[in-house]
Amino acid sequence: MEYSLIDLEPGESGLIKGIVGSSQSKKRLMAMGIIQGKEITVETVAPMGDPRIYSVLGYRLSMRNVEAQNIRIVRN
Amino acid sequence: MQGGKITVALVGNPNCGKTTLLNRITRSKESVGNYPRVTVALKRKEFTHQGQVIELIDLPGIYALTSQTPEEREARDFIHSGQVDIIINVLDACNLERSLFLTSQLIEMGHPLLFVLNMADEARSKKLQIDTQGLSSMLGGSVFETVGTTGEGLKELLDGVVMLHAQKTRREPIFLTYDDHLEQSVRRVQRLVTELHPKALDHHQSRWLAIKLLEGDDRILLQEGEHAHLLEMVHRERYDLARSHGEECDLLFAMARYGFTHGVVEEVVQGPSEGEMVRDWTGRLDQVFLHRFFGIPLLLVLLWIMFQSTFSLGKIPMGWIDASVSWVSEWVSGQLPEGMVHDLVVDGIIAGVGGTVVFLPNIVILFFFMAMFSETGYLARAAFLVDRSMHTFGLHGKALIPLVMGFGCNVPAVMATRTIEDYRSRMITILISPFMLCSARLPVFILFAGAFFSEKAGTMVLLMYVLSIVVAMGAAVILNRLFLRSDDDAFVMELPPYRLPTLRAIMIHMGDRVIGFLQKVAGVILVGSIIIWFLQEFPHHQTLSQDYDREISQLALMPQTLQNEEIITALKMKKAQEELEQSYLGQIARTIAPVFVPLHFTWKDTVAILTGFVAKEVVVASYAVLYSQGDRAAENSESLRKALSHSMTPIVAFTFMLFALLYAPCLGTIATIGREAGGWIWAGYSVAFSMTLAYGLSFLVVQIGGLLL
User: Fold this and answer.
1) Would an 8 Å CB–CB cutoff place B216 in contact with chain A?
2) CB-based contact (8 Å) between B416 and chain A?
3) Which residue of A71, B41, B538, B560 is most buried, as measured by CB atoms within 10 A?
4) Distance CA B290, CA B377 (A)
């Protein structure tokens, strides 16, 4: 089953399948380590549920939910 | 180039410790920050190593070279400018895979490269083992392990720079190879590029150009705009590749690069898995600092502690400085003979500079906290915590950093907006940054709050801070309405691990700011004080309504009584008043003053407002000079407060504080806005916008306040 990154709850992780959206935002996300086949985990959620912190490639990265929505994953 | 100095550029991800490394190497003063992209302007340091002059340039931290952000463009343009002999690519040893993405692009640019595995100590403590020999051969350049905070490995690195420059360790350049399809496209485009630029490009350069074209790089496409058939070919290749791979061409390249970096990491790194890497104490601290319910209250408490300390702790050394300035003033006054020079030094220079230097302790403490926040990594967390709320005002969470820095000085605040990629968000942040109550305006409020609201001085200053935030947010909403909405809502931000700041780093960070403040005092404030003194001292031949000097000397001869002394003081005040009114400054101010009549400001306040354009602290210096007339005694804030408190009603005083808070940014900030926003029209826009807001709000306050009180 394919999901979007926002479907993951804190502590859950998945494998990145791909990114949808503008080429600009895809490039930016890829430069930050959002790459196909990598594992991504939800670490922390901001007080109002948005943005959230994820860990990927062994470091932490925050994203707004609108961006996370564009990242397709498969659950682990 | 040869024989002369070696120009070395430091390139790396934000937060990889480049600036710390630079500081350590040059043992000089440089701002360091454990927050992504603290370095905004190019910083250069020159030094000698083994008798060789080396110029080290700290390029802004970037994740890629695909010219999306101003930093990326700046870094790339600089590398291409031909000024760089050697590039040192700083890699975060704990974050090798992501760091190498930038490396893969640097390698393709074909410049002599050296690699630094920085923060090797952190990697060791995480039990990461990196085979530097293997890495070196895979990247085609020497690799050095360093620890920026202790200086470990730096000598070897500099030796390496000198060696590489002397061509002793030159290696065959390596190329990233892509899969067959991509590779064939690259070659086809490269062939045409070479034909179009005969003999101008070497193999590396033409290949790089071909790759950039296929990646759809806007700038390069524009640069090659004259070669229509090249662009047509690139377009066709991109289309074909995208169709056959089911993915856009630029992303195919990015994926191929990650293929390379992944291969390298697999080969050379041994240690814990990525998942284990983040199960560190940063995670546990985040559970506290980013707690769902306590995160924001904790942020507020930290900011409150920062301001409380700034003011209550600052009071003690302020008293000492105040006393010293008085002492110096009196001593100098006694040394110099009566006359013009005496007046210039005592009433102009010492009064003006002394009146500003008093605020040094506040600034030192404020910047201590700012340094602590950024060095520990907390500043990025703060941006994360407030992003949702900031978003309501059309701002980015990252705007918190420029805005908080604005409390220190608006100039670095405007520069720090570079961290915001979205153009619209960035422009809004630039335009509202000047509303943040900077440390230069603080003296004005401390003076006024002390003079008019002595019991509630602290509350009044706090109120000004609150107002500055409220106005900034309101302005953001207004500007949001004026601008076209863009749908780019990016908030991708790295959260660096928490780090214990070294005392050294904090000191360097603070020292920078303090020196900056003192330079301002020595420069702008000094010149400003002298000009103000000159404008209010001349012309000398004035026609006064009474012969004050004669009357005063006559009274002075008579027996000393309390009544007598009061008359003398009154006469002196009146004389001073008249002299000022007729001075150049008085004349200018009185011409403009009618504009401020609806706000109940006098021509003296107009003088202060005019002089405040230079720098906001000058407002205090102006009042000091304005009220020092006829008073040969030392200037200190206590006497200035007294003099000031008789000059206006509390409501007008409050209005003046509000006006001083909001009206046009100082010259330095205006210049920075012009430069950063990319056009003087923005600087003009900023001035017009803030003037309108300041005048409008002040008018409302003084009129409504007048009705209520």
Assistant:
1) yes
2) no
3) A71
4) 12
Q: In what order do the strands lie in the sheet with A71-75?
A: A2-4, A71-75, A13-19, A39-45, A52-56, A59-63, B493-495
Query: Cβ of B274 and A27 within 8 Å?
Result: no
Check residue B145 and report its DSSP letter: E
In terms of CATH architecture, what is B6-165? 3-Layer(aba) Sandwich (3.40)
Q: Domain A2-75: which topology?
A: SH3 type barrels. (2.30.30)
Secondary structure (3-state) at B357: helix
- Please return the burial class of B325, using the count of CB atoms within 10 Å of its CB with bins 0-12, 13-18 and 19+: buried
CATH number belonging to the domain at B180-277, selected among 1.10.287.1770, 1.10.8.60, 3.30.870.10, 3.30.70.100: 1.10.287.1770
How close A43 gets to chain B, by Cα (Å)?
Answer: 8
Look at B251 and A58 and tell me if their CB atoms are within 8 Å: no
The pTM of this model reads: 0.77
The per-residue pLDDT for B37 is: 36
A59 touches chain B (CB under 8 A): yes
Rounded-to-integer distance, Cα B649 and Cα B694, Å: 19
**81-120 in B: which are within 8 Å (CB) of A?**
94-95, 97-98, 101
**Residue with the larger pLDDT of the pair B544 and A41:** A41
pLDDT given for residue B679 in this prediction: 78
Chunk chain B into consecutive blocks of 10 residues (it has 709) and report each block's average pLDDT, rounded to whole numbers.
76 85 65 40 75 85 78 83 89 90 90 89 86 91 88 88 78 78 92 87 86 86 86 92 87 89 90 70 88 90 79 81 87 85 82 75 78 84 90 84 79 74 83 90 86 84 91 91 64 86 80 72 73 78 74 78 76 72 84 92 87 79 66 48 80 93 84 79 92 95 86
Residue B525 dihedral angles phi and psi, to the nearest 5° = -65, -40
Give me the residues of B, 280-339, that contact A with CB < 8 A: 282-283, 286-287, 290, 292-293, 295-296
